[in-house]
Amino acid sequence: MVLDRLLDVAERAVKTALRMGAHQSQASSFILDAALTRYANSQIHQNVAYRSGGVSVRVVLSDRRMGDIEAFTLEEEGVEKAVEDALRIARASRPNLDFKGPPEPEPWSPLEGAFDDETSLCTPQDRVQMVREAIETAHARSPLVRAVAGNLSTNSAYFAVVNSLGVSARASLTTAGMKTTVISELEGTEGFSTAESYSRRVGDIDPIQLAGEAAERSVKGVKPARVQPGDYEVVLSPLAVRVLFSYISGMGFSASSYQDGSSFVRYFSGQRVFDIKLNVKDDALDPRTLYMLPVDGEGVPKRRMNLIAAGEALLEGICYDSLRAGREDKKSTGHSPPPIGRRLLDRPVPYNVIVEPGDSNMDEMIEETKNGLFITDLWYIRPVEPTRIVLTGLTRDGTFLIENGELSKPVVNLRFTDSMLSALSEIPLLGKEVKTFETNAVPAMKLKKMRFVGVSAY
Amino acid sequence: MSQDLARFILEEASRRGASYSDVRIVSIENEVLNVRNGSPEQVELQGLRGFGVRVIVNGSWGFAASVDLNRDEAVNVVKRAVDIARASSRLKKGDVVLAWEDARRAEYSTPYKKDPFEAPLEEKLEILMDAERSLAACSPLIKTSNSYYRGYRERKLFMSSEGSEISQTITWCGGGIMAVAVRGGEVQVRSYPSSFRGDYSTSGYEYFESLALVDHAEEVGGELVKLMDAERCPSEEMDLILTGDQLALQIHESCGHPTELDRVMGTEADMAGTSFLTPDKLGRFMYGSKNVNLVADATVPGGLGTFGYDDEGVKAKMVYLVREGLFVGYQTSRETAAALNLRESSGGMRADSPLSLPIIRMTNINLLPGDWKAEEIIEDTRDGILMMTNRSWSIDDKRINFQFGTEVGWRIRDGSREGLVKNPTYMGVTPRFWGSCDAVSGDDWRMWGTPSCGKGVPGQVMYVGHGCGTARFRRTRVGLI
C-alpha cells in the first residue's frame, strides 16, 4: 500500500517533468517512520518519534544541464512544484558533461526478510520495557555500576524509484538498533563499557545480554592504569573492527575518493597489501547486512562486489553511482544512496560491507597474546594520510592490558596513529562470528602490531 | 495559518494532559551548488517544512514530529508525543524542572543586504565556474578542483504553553574553493577561505561576493603546488602558532563541546561522550592561561551561531565559559540549567530541523581578541611552526587528548617564515595546551562559520560560529611520532 503510493508519486513526477520539457528525469520518493528512546543516568531522557517523507527529482535537459530537488512532500501540488523548480534550476545551470544519463532498467527481485512487522509496530511501551530490562540488568551485576546510558531505535523505511528510461523499483526495510553504555565507579575512578546490537528484527535484540556484557566490562574497567605508548599486539572486539572498516571501505572504495586520488586502491590495487586471511565484500543481498536492499537509490539492482580478496585490494571493488560512473565511461555498480540516506551519504560508498570470518574467538585471541591490548571500541577516527590509510583515533569504553594470555588490568585510553597498510598486514586470528552493525558486518580480529602514540588523561 | 495550527497543537496537548508544551513550525530552504572539474556536480534545492511538538506529561518529556502540516496530522503527532511521554514517565528518577524564562512575543531576522535566494543562479554558477577554472589551470598536478556555494534560510514559529510566540528568520550563505594535487602516491589539499566547503556567515549574498573566490584561486593553486615539494613536518616539541581557520576548530572541539552541560550530565555518554569539565571544577579549574577568554555569544553580527531566540524561546545572549583562564560557565538548556541551580539558561537549545528534538548546541564560541598583532607573534617566535587550515581532527570522548592535522604549515625561525612544511600535525592535552597559550592576536580577529557540527542520536547537523584570530602555544608536540 505504502509502496504503491510511493511508486505512483515517482511515476507522476517523471511524467510531469517530461511533459514540462525535460529530456530525461528520475524521481525517488520515500517515507520514513522513525522512533528512538534514549536513556542516560539510568532513566529515559529523550523519547521521540517522527514521520518524514518526500520526493527527490532530477531533471536533465538535452544539452545535459541538470537540476536536482529534494522536497519533503508527497502531495500532488508539492510534487508538481518540485518538478517545476528542478527544471528552473536546470535551465539556469551549465551542462554536466560527466553525466551520461540515468541507468537503463535491469531486472531485480524483491528480498524476503527485509521488512519485519513486529519492528514496524513497536510501541513506546515496548521500547521502555526493553530499556528497563537493560538498566535493571546492569545495576544488578554490581553495586559499582553508577549509570546506564544508551539508545534503542526502530525504523520503517519505504522508497520507490522511477526514471524516464523505464526503471521502476521499490523497496521497504525495517531496522532496529540498541546500544548500552555502562559507567561504573570506584574510589573516584570510572570504568566504561559498551555493547551494541542491530537487526532488521527488533525481536533479535536482547537487552539483558547487551547490558550484562557492558556492565561486566565496565566494572572491570575501574581504576585504570597508564601504559606507555608504543607498538602493541591488539585484540579488537567487533565494535572496534567495525569502526576501522567503516573508514577503510568508505575512503578506499568510493568512486569519489578514487577519482580525486585519495583512495589507497588507486596506488595499491593488484598488490597483496593486507594479511592473506582478509576477505571483504559488499553485498546488500546477504542477510548478515543490516541495510538489505534489492536496488540502490537510482533503481540499479544490488549485487555482490569483492573489495579485498586474500589481502589484495581490488580495483573492481570501487563503488559508483551513475554520475561518477559516467566520468569514467563505466556503468553504475548500484551504490547511489537511497533517498532516505542522502542527508548522511552524499557520495557512492559501500554500505553493506562484510568482512569474512575466520575460525577463532576473542577468548582464544586473548589466550594467544603475551603482551598486548584488548580494545572494546574505537572513537573519533580521522584520516591523516588517506593514500597510505594513516588513521588516528582513540580507544574507548573498555581498554585492557593483556599479559600472558589474560586481561590483567584496565588501562587509560590511548591514541593510535598508524597506517592500516601496516596494522592489517598481519592478522594472526580472525573471529568466526560475524556481528552485524549499521553499514558493515565484521568479526573480532587480532592484529600483530598497532602503533599507539599518546595516552589520554583519564 | 501557522499561528492557528500552533495554537491548536498547544490546546490539544493541554487537553491530553501536558503540563507544558511547545511547538516549532519550521520551513527550511537550502541551495547547494558544487562545481567540480569543469562541471556542476550538484545544483540542488532542498526544501523542508514540518512541525515538532515537545510535551511534558507526568513529569517526563515526549516529542513527535511530522512533515504533514494539517490538523488531522497535528492530532496524531500530539497523541504520539503524549503517549511517548507517559511511557517515559515509567522510567524516571524525578520530574523535569525548567529554569524560569519570561514568556515573549517577538520577531527577529538575521540582517542581510542581498537576499541569497533572489541572487540569480546563473550568476552564482558563473562565479563558481570561473573560480574552479582558475584553480584547475594552476598546474597539471591538480587532479581535482571544486568550488562551492550554499544559501540557507530557516523560518521558524515557536509557541509555548507558557505564552511565548516568537517568529524568526535565519539566513546565511557562503562558499569556498578546494583543490587536490596528486603526484605518485602523494596527495595534498589546499582550500580557501577554510576547508570542508568554505566559510559561512549569517549575512546575505554580499558575504559570498566578499569571499572573492575567483581572485584567490591562483594563490591557492600556487601554494598547493609548492606544498608538493615542501619538507615534511618535523616531529618534535616546539612553539606552535595557529591561524584563525584552524584555531576555530580547536576551540570548537576542546572548549565548545566539553562545556555543553548535557554532555557533562551524562546524556551524551552513549554517543558523543562526556566531559572533563565536571561541575566540581566550575569556578575553580584553570582551563588555560590568563590570555584565554572564551565566550558563547549568540549575538555577534554575522556569526553562523547567531539568532534572536533559541528553540526554547530563550533570548540570545553572551555568557563567559572561560575568563582569564578560569573555567566559569556552561552552555545549557532550561532543564540542565535548573538541574545545576543556575539562574537561567545560556540559550543554546537548537534543532537542525522541525523533525529533530532541540539539544544543547554551540552558538558562537569565541576566543576574545588579545593585544598582539598576528605578525608580531611570528616575529616574536624563535623556533616554531605556523599551521593553517584544518585537514583532520580527532579528540577523545572527554575532550582532553587531541590530534589535529592542517593543510599547510610554515617553519618559523628567528621571527620569520622559513619555508612550507607538508602534512603538519600537532597533539596535546586540552588544559595543558590552553595553559601554554601566551599570545592572542586582535588585529586579525574574525568570525568563522561551520555548517556541519554533528551531535546527538539520531544525528543532527548544526551550523555554528567561532570568532578568533591567531594564537601561540609554547612547547607543543608537532609531527607524527
Share of β-strand residues of chain A? 35-45%
Mean pLDDT, all residues of chain B: 97
Mean pLDDT of chain A: 96
Largest beta-sheet characterization of chain A: 6 strands, antiparallel
Q: In angstroms, what separates the terminal alpha carbons of chain B? A: 61 Å
The helical percent of chain B reads 10-25%
The amount of beta strand of chain B, in percent, is: 35-45%
* Secondary structure tally: strands of chain B: 24
Please state the structural category of chain B.
alpha+beta
Low-confidence stretches of chain A: none
CA radius of gyration of chain A is: 24 Å
So how many helices of chain B? Answer: 10
By DSSP, the count of extended strands of chain A is 19
Low-confidence stretches of chain B: none
| Helical segment count of chain A | 11
Helix content of chain A: 10-25%
Rg of chain B computed from alpha carbons, rounded to a whole number of angstroms: 23 Å
Shape verdict of chain B: globular
Which structural class should the secondary elements of chain A be placed in?
Answer: alpha+beta
